[in-house]
Amino acid sequence: MKIFSGIKPSGIIHLGNYIGALRQWVILQDAHECLFCIVDLHALTVRVDPALLRRLTLETAATYIACGLDAKKSVLFIQSHVPPHAELAWILNTLAKISELKLMHQFKEKSKSNPENINAGLFDYPVLMAADILLYDATHVPVGQDQQQHIELARELARRFNSIYGKTFVVPEGMIPPRGAKIMALDNPAKKMEKTGSIGGYIALTDTPDVIRKKIKSAVTDSGSDVLFDEKKKPALSNLITIYHLLSGLSIPAIEKEYQGKGYGQFKKGLSDVTIDFLKPIQQKFSECMGDPGALLRILEKGACAARAQADKKMQKVKENIGLIA
Predict the structure, then answer these.
(1) Helix or strand (DSSP H, E) at 269
(2) C-alpha dist (Å) from residue 201 to 89, 94, 177
(3) Does residue 188 belong to any structural domain of this protein?
(4) What is the CATH number of the domain that holds 75?
(5) Residue range 91-126, pLDDT digits in tens
(6) CB 60 within 8 A of CB 7
């Protein structure tokens, strides 16, 4: 398998990002060819302070490494450092249908939350994502459930291009983890944990122990007091149990047994302890990386060189197949 994925540097990376993406990436890099990108061009669909974008881009890279991504095993790079991403996106735009893009759930949701800036980039976001993937002949793309629709568009654009211009792109498949693909907000189990959500809704990977305890203590729970996993009857508690399970390695039945008759208070205390212990080495490594931005940039530049070599080769074939003089 060849793997491609990325995270947008639009805010603090949180536990949902780790469980739904980074955790899976770290496992995949040991057995497969992997490229992991910081998709900074995607971040431009909202207004962002330039200095903040630069800082968040470096922090995202530091988080990749802190969570266990190894530049010796994977290609780590910044999207905008490889110009063919934008170049291929334009070419795919000539194949993408407006009717297809109008169906994208994320565009609808983002438009509602930011009605004063419904820009063409936001509308076209899935085409750039398709270019990100197809550029490297990725066979599999680890994504959360909310991105599956975008993967289907990438698959359709690959098939459409191949049908018109001859075999050029690999048709990728989405990879959704069996559990944890969608971690919900602590303060609202009906909404996904988001970087741009309320502060009490997410646990940032850089949150202090005191902040973590406060957020988990305040997390929404369901009626009753039994610690039982039931996504229909106890969605809020089931979300917390999923986090506990994935961070501790304990099975869900073992967690239920551990807190049988102890109530939500004891469970939340245990979840806080597990989360703090899990994040401690990640936070230490993150601080080391951010303390040496020069070393971080060297890793990213080396990764961009490796990515450009692959991207340029693919663009050469794309141009030849569609009749552009390369």
Answers:
(1) helix 263-290
(2) 34, 39, 22
(3) no
(4) 3.40.50.620
(5) 999 999 999 988 887 776 776 667 777 788 888 999
(6) yes
The span from the CA of 77 to the CA of 6, in Å, is: 9
Q: What is the DSSP string of 124-186?
A: HHHHHHHHHHHTTT-SEEE--GGGHHHHHHHHHHHHHHHHHH-S-S---EEE--SS-SSPEET
Range of the domain at 28: 2-180+292-322
Is 90 exceeded by the pLDDT of residue 200?
no
Q: Which of 192, 187, 214, 318 shows the shortest CA–CA distance to 269?
A: 214
Alpha carbon of residue 80 to chain centroid: 17
Residues with a known catalytic role: 110, 192, 195
Q: Please say whether the dihedral angle defined by the alpha carbons of residues 162, 122, 307 and 311, taken in this order, is positive or negative.
A: positive
Note whether residue 255 is domain-resident. yes
What pTM value is reported for the model?
A: 0.91
Tell me the C-alpha distance between 132 and 227, whole Å. Answer: 42
pLDDT at 282 > cutoff 70: yes
Q: Give the chain's count of helices (H) and strands (E).
A: 13, 7
Contacts of the segment 112-117: beta carbons below 8 A, 24+ positions apart: 114/46, 117/46, 117/47
Structure tokens at 102: 């109008």
Specify whether the CB–CB gap between 296 and 289 falls below 8 A: yes
* Burial (0-12, 13-18, 19+ Cβ within 10 Å), 81: middle
